[in-house]
Design a protein that fits this description.
The structure holds three protein chains of three kinds. Chain A is α/β, with parallel strands linked by helices. Chain A has helices at residues 18-31, 106-110, 120-125, 132-144, 148-159, 164-183, 206-217, 231-243, 254-266, 277-293, 320-325, 343-358, 368-371, 439-455, 480-492, 510-517, 533-541, 561-570, and strands spanning 5-12, 35-42, 51-58, 71-74, 94-98, 114-118, 201-205, 221-224, 247-250, 271-275, 297-303, 334-337, 361-367, 374-378, 423-425, 463-466, 471-476, 497-502, 504-506, 522-527, 548-552. Chain A has three domains: 5-183, Pyruvate-ferredoxin oxidoreductase, PFOR, domain III (Pyruvate-ferredoxin Oxidoreductase, domain 3), CATH 3.40.920.10; 202-378, Thiamin diphosphate (ThDP)-binding fold, Pyr/PP domains (Rossmann fold, 3-Layer(aba) Sandwich), CATH 3.40.50.970; 461-570, 3-Layer(aba) Sandwich (Rossmann fold), CATH 3.40.50.920. Chain A is built from 18 helices and 21 strands. In chain A, the strands form three sheets. An eight-stranded mixed beta sheet of chain A has the order 6-5-4-1-3-2-14-7. Chain A has a seven-stranded mixed beta sheet with strand order 9-8-10-11-13-12-19, with helices on both faces. In chain A, helix 2 (106-110) links the parallel strand 5 (94-98) and strand 6 (114-118). In chain A, helix 7 packs parallel to helix 8 (231-243). By secondary structure, chain B is an all-alpha fold. In chain B, 62% of the residues lie in helices and 0% in strands. Chain C has eight helices and ten strands. In chain C, the strands form two sheets. Chain C has an eight-stranded mixed beta sheet, with helices on both faces. A two-stranded antiparallel sheet of chain C has the order 5-6. Chain C starts with 28 loop residues before the first helix and ends in a 25-residue tail after the last strand. The radius of gyration of chain C is 19 Å and the shape is globular. The relative contact order of chain C is 0.14. Chain C has helices at 29-43, 78-88, 100-106, 108-117, 163-170, 183-195, 218-221, 233-242, and strands spanning 50-54, 69-72, 93-99, 122-127, 130-131, 137-138, 174-179, 200-205, 223-224, 247-253. Chain C has one domain (12-276): 3-Layer(aba) Sandwich (Rossmann fold), CATH 3.40.50.970. The chains are: A alpha/beta, B mainly alpha, C alpha/beta. At the A-C interface, helix 1, strand 7, helix 7, helix 8 and helix 9 of A face strand 1, strand 2, helix 2 and helix 4 of C.
Amino acid sequence: MSGDTVSIAISGAGGAGVMTAAQMLLDAAAKAGFYGLMARSSGPQIRGGEVAAFLRLGSRPVECLDDRFDVMVALDWLNVERFAGEIVLDGASVVLCDADAGEAPERIRASGAQLVPLPLQETVKNLPGGRMNMLGLGLLTGLTGLPEDVVGGVVAKGLKKRGQEVLDAGLAGVRAGMALVAASEVPACRLGSSPPAVAPRWNISGNEAAGLGCIRGGIRFVAAYPITPATEILEWLAPSLEKVGGVLVQAEDELASINMIIGGSFGGTPALTATSGPGLALMMESIGLAVASETPIVVIDVMRGGPSTGIPTKSEQSDLNIALYGLHGDAPHIVTAARSIADCQFTAQWSVHLAEQLQVPVIVLTDQSLGQSRAIVDRPADLAFIGRREMPVAGVTGYQRYALTASGVSPMAIPGIPGGEYIADGLEHAVSGRPSSGNEDHSAQLDKRARKLELFDYGDHWADVEGDGPLAIVTLGSCSGPVREACARAKALGIATRLISLRLLAPAQEDRFAKALEGADRVLVVEQTHSKQFYRYLRAHYDLPRDLKVLSRPGPLPIRPGEVFDCIKAWS
Amino acid sequence: MTDDVKDANRIDSVELFLAHALTLENEAADGYQEIGDSMAVHNNPEVAGLFLQMCKYGRMHADEVRELATGLDLPHIPPWEYSWEDGESPESASMDKMHYMMQPAQALALAMKAERQAHAFYAGVAASTANPRVRELAQQFAAEESEHVRLLGEWIAKYPPADDNWDYDPDPPAMPE
Amino acid sequence: MTALAQTPALTAAAYKSDYRPVWCPGCGHYSVLSSLTKALAELGLQRENVAVISGIGCSSRIPAYTSVYGFHSVHGRALPVATGLKVARPDLTVVVAGGDGDGYSIGGNHFLHACRRNVDLTYLVMDNQVYGMTKGQASPTTPADWDRSKLTPHGTGVSPFHPLAVALAAGANFIARCYAGDPNGTARVITEAVRHPGFSMVQILSQCVTYQPSQKEWKTTVRKADVTTTRDAVRAARWLMADDGLSTGVLYIGHRPIYRPELQASCSVDDLESGFVV
C-alpha cells in the first residue's frame, strides 16, 4: 500500500468477467465514499481474449496508477504473461489464484509476491450459476473491507436485468469470496476510512468527460469515424447530443468527418470530431482549410501508440508533433492537452470556447490512459466557458468576412444573415474572401490569423503551476498525475519542487512560461514519447536552464510516479 | 397553353409578347456582358470592348421594352417555358463559340448571328399573331433588329478578316491551382 | 403558364456576384452558372438562405461567382462539407458543385456515401472528362484511348467511370443528365432537383474548349433521352447501362428515406450529468 491507497489487479481470460467485476468494485468503492481509478488492458482478441483491470482505490483523489500492486487476483493464468510488464509485483504483494489452475507463470513467481492458492474453480462449481468474477469481487470485498451491503447493492443494480437467478448467484459468489478470504491467512489490505464527500462524486471516464466538456462548451454537431481509443467519446456523445438538440453523424472516413464539421460550423453550429493518430493524420489537410477559412472546429485526438496502426489500445503522447506541426503552410492553430480524467472536461470545454472565440481549429490532446480509464472524482466546478462567435448583424452592408481588425478576429457571418453572404475559401483571399495570390493580401491574412492567437488572453488556464521549488518538472497530459504524486512524495522528504503541466501547447506562452520558471535552476521534462517530442518542443519555444534532464519513454507502459520520484531524489 | 404557343410560335397578348421581348433583350445584354467580361479577364480588350458595347445597346433596348410595359402586368414565365425556337433566348451570342484569341471580325460575326436570330423571332411573331397590337410591336422590333444587322455589317467591314493563324498561342496553358 | 402564381422575388442576375469568372471563353461552366442562378430565381430563394459548396477545380470556382453563401473547400471534399452544413442547418438550401475529377476521383468515396446517405442536397457535376486546372490530365470519365495528356501518352487504358449508374446503385434519389449547351433545360432540371427531397445527382456535360475541343461536337451529338422519368430503379439501371452517356433528361426519381436528424432538445445539458453521479 502506498500511503492511503490500495492497488489491485484482476486478470482472467475472456468470458471470466474481469471487467465487470472491476467495474463493480470501483462503483462499490465510490458508493462507500472512496476515490479511485480504473484502467484496463486486453489482448487483441475481440471476444475471449485475456483481460486485466487495474484499480487504485483510496481516501484521496487518485490521478494515476501506483508503482506496484498490493493485490492481484488471477482468475486463471491463461496468457497472463502479456500483462507482466503492467502488473508490477514485489515481496509485499499478494497474489490470489486458483489452486487448480496449475503453477503460476515464471515472472509472477520471480516477483517474490506471496502466492495464495484458493479453491476458486471448486467453489464456483459448487454454487448454482456461480461465476468466477463474482467470486473474485467477493475476495476483494473481503480484502479491502468494503461493506458487503454496498457491494451487494452494486451487484444487484448490475445484474437485476439478467433475472433473479443470476442476481442470487452473483450475490452468493460475493459471499463465497468473502468467506474464502476470511478462512485464509491472506493479509488484509484494507481501505482506510472514507473521507466525507464535500461535493457530489462522479464516476467518469476521460472520454466521457471530454464529451461532456464539449457539450457544455456548446458543441451541437459531431461527425466522426470510429477509432480506438476515441470511440467512447462518440458513443457517449451520440445519445447525449440527441437529447440536447444536436446530432452525431457517423461519417464514411476521417476525411469526411473533418470536412463535415467544417460544414456544420460554417452553418453556425459549434462542431467537433474525435479521433486518434491515424485519423488525425488523415484530417490534416482540412484542419488547414479550417485555419485558412477561419472556421472554428474542435478535434479531439485520443493518442495511442504510433506510428501507423501502432498500438491502438495503449497510451503514448507521440502525436504531439503532428498536432503541433502537421499542417502544411504557416497555419497557426491551437493545441491543448488535458492533464487528468476530470480535466478532459475542463480542457475540452475551454477548447470549444477558444475555437469559437478565435475562429480557429483546436486540437485537443488526450490519450488512451485518460480516455479509457475511469475515475471517481469530485464533481468538477461549473465553468463559464461557452463558445461565443462574433457575428455581423442582419442587414449588414459592405460586409467583409476577413476584414483586418486589431484583434485579428473578424465577425463571421453565418447563412441566414442577410447581407453577410460570402464565400469561405481555402485559397488565400482578400478581405472580402475573394481568391487572391497577391503579396499584400497573403501577408495581411497571415498576419491576421497569427495575430488573433497571439493577442488573445488565455489567462491562467495555459498551465497548472504548483509549488515554487528550484527543481521544475515540466510535463503534459497523462504524465501530470504521476509527476504530481512524485512531487508530493518529494515534499514529504523535504525536497521542494514545482510542477508545470502545460494545458496550452500552441500558441506557446513564452512570457508566462518564463514567469512560471522564475527561480528554478533545474528542469526535469517528463513525457511519454520515444523521440522526446515534448522536450524538443520546449527547446524550440522556451528559454530553459542549462541544467536539464528528460524522463522520456514510449508506451505502452505508463510513466509511474516512482520513476519520476527517483529522478527527483537522485537530483536533489 | 404552352404547347399550343410553342407549336404555332404564336403570341397573342401584348403582355406575353413584352415578357418575351424583355427577356430576349435582357439575356442578350447579360450574354454580351458575360462574354465581354470573359474577354477582358483573358486580356483581349478589343473584343471585350465590342461585346461590352453590344451589351450597352442591349440594356438600352431592354429599357425601351420596360417602358412599353409600364402599367402592364407581365406574366412570370419560367426560363424553359418561353416560346423560343430552340429553348434558348434567340439573341444570346453563344458562349461556346468564343475563343480567348478571337479577333473583332469573328466576334462581330457572332453578334450578327444573334441579331439575325432576334429578327427572325420578332418576324415570326408578327407573322403568326392574331393580335394586331402585338403584330405592330413585333414588326417594329423586327425592323430594329434589321437595322442592327445592317449596322453590324458596316462595323464588320471596318475590320480585316481573321488571320489564318488567329488562334496560335506559342505558350502552353497555365496551371492555376 | 404553370408557374404564373409563383413570381420570383429576385432575378437570376441578382444571384450572380460582380466577380468575373476565370473560366476560358467558350467554357460550358458559364452556362451552368446561368442555369443555377435561373433556378435559384425560379425557386424564389432568399440569397442568405442558400449555400453553394464546392471543392477544387475549374468548376469548383462557381461559388465565388454567385451572391449567396458558399464554401470553396479543398479538393474532393465538397460533399462532406455540404453534408455537415445541411445536417446542422436543415433550413438552408444547399447546392454542391464541382467537376468530374473532384467528385469521382479524389472525392469518390464521399460520392458513394452521399448517394447512400441521401441528405437533401443537390449535386451538380460539371463533367468535361478532364482536369483543367492542372493542364489537362485524364479524369475518371475520360475515354480510355484519350492520349492527349503527357501523364497518359498511350491513353489511360482504363474504362471510364459511369457516374449515373454508380449514383443509382449507391442510392441517389434523383438522377439527371444535362448539357451546358441547353441552359434553360438545365435550369429546369436544377429546379426540380432542388425541389426533390434527398440527394439529387445532376451530371452536366460541360465542354472544355481548351483540353477537350472535340466536345464542341456535343452540340450535335447530345440529345434528349428517349425515355420517360422512372421510379423503377431496375428500369433506370437497364436504360443507363445501354445509354452512350449523351442522352439528357431526368432519368430517375426515387422515394427513399431522407437522412434528416431531428434537432430537438428534450433535456438540459445539466441533465446529462446524472449518468455520472455515484
